[in-house]
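To fix ideas, we now present one chain and its tokenised fold:
***
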Amino acid sequence: MSGYDAPMLAAAVDPVSDVLIQYGAVGVISIMALAAVRVLFNRMSTMADRERERADRLEEELRKLNETIRTEYVNTIATAARAIQDANRAVADALSVVRRS
């Protein structure tokens, strides 16, 4: 086998090796940079999906909490209004008793 056949054999075995042999250090650096960009993009994409799911979950929890608070406030305000009416009636009854005396 001659020296010319070795690079051809390497290229036939692995296309990545062909690129590395052809471009040398620049090819290796380019492939490493592309791999790093892909890893970072996948990481950012995963983080964005996770944050979107978290935001949706928290938004639903906030909606439920607001509904609960609204319901509780309505009941509390209704009870307070009845208590004020009862107090006004009691004051009016007391004034009428005082005026009659």
Q: What stands out?
A: Residues 15-100 form the longest helix (86 residues). Helices lie at 5-13, 15-100.
